[in-house]
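Side project, low priority. Logging it here so it doesn't get lost.
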Amino acid sequence: MVKDDLKHIYDVSLFNISDLDVLLHEILKYTRELLKAEAGTIYIKQKNFLKFHVFQNDALSYENIYKFYHSSQEYKLSLASKEKYLAVDSFLTKKIIIIDDIYAAGEYEFLGAKEFDKKFNYKTHSTISVPLIHPIEKNVLGVVQLLNKKENDEYKVFTKEDKNVISMISSFISLSISKAQDDVVKLKELNDQLIKSNEDLEKKIKEKVKEDQIKSAIIFHQSKMASMGEMIGNIAHQWRQPLSTISTLASGVSINLEMGTDNKENNVLQLRQIVDTTQILSKTIDDFRDFYNVNVMDENFNIAAAIKKSLEIAETELSTNDIKIVLNLNSSLYAYGLKSEFTQCLLNLLTNAKDALVINIPISEPRYIFIDLQEEQMEISLSIKDNAKGLDASLKENIFEQRYINKENKEDSGVGLFLTKLIIEKHMKGTISVENTDYSYEGKNYTGAIFTINLEG
């Protein structure tokens, strides 16, 4: 045997093949070529049996090879059946065994080979069975069986020289298979670690989601309490003047009655004024109750009407601080969602603008809030702009975060703007942004912040 015939078997690149099935196919291919075998099979030990792994046969069509391979995936040779299977005997005795003709030999039953021959109209002649023994650990990993040595289109028997050649390379084959098996084990361990890591990650994500849900619930509760505080404050502002009027009228009627002044018409007029004023108070309660009612469904609502409603609710605070509202509204535009939530967003933005104006602009100077509602290229754009000199760069960057704190360290501002962004993006499917802007109005130049909400038209 020429040494060059062996060089591809000793190719160290085989050690780099970590896929066991690919390696076994390569080993069987090279071994068959070396001994000029027409067909071959490799069995690998698993527990108390030899399991069929790979099969090759040059005489069969690809279709028959495919059928046989997939019908034999669970084909196993019991290690307790030494007398039945040549491969088992070779495995247990750790010997290379050559059979010149399986149909003439009486040592083994050759059931699998004979069934295969009958099914695929094939004829198995000679065979050589080689145990794969690890050269260091001395354990047997499996068996290589080669069938039908063929030279110049004639079937030959396997020779002693074939036995010597395959004996030389069996250790290398065993080392390659052992390494691939170790790689498979390592890959399984790595995969198990990855599965466990994924499970741990999923668990942490669920815990984090639950934690965030609790935090969100707390934030919404804080927002609700803050909104209730704002509502009570706004009600108090709007009630103060009517209550003062009622008190004055009631005092006048009481004095007239105590002094016996005979002015029935004047008393009736004052009493009617008291009734009218109480109706104003009742309407104020209804307005706020409708606004804070959460038991409503999504609806198509008029955006301009929602803006005007928010301005009515905030009117007292805005007028008390001498803030002028400049409107430019397209009254034909509608949005889909919760009207009360959207109005809350507008109130949050108005409150933010009001706070900035009170802090940065003296009462002696004009204070403006500009509200512009238009539609451009099938997109609704709503902007709320002030003249409060703009936002600091650091504040603008974090203004929509939950813990944003304004210049007076009022953390409620952060909660309000965080929820505004949440409602616009999650519930209204829109976007909100803020920028500083320079502009002119009535011949004077101003600087301020502009919040822009974009919604689908």
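Brief comment: The chain is about 50% helix and 25% strand.
Revisit when time allows.
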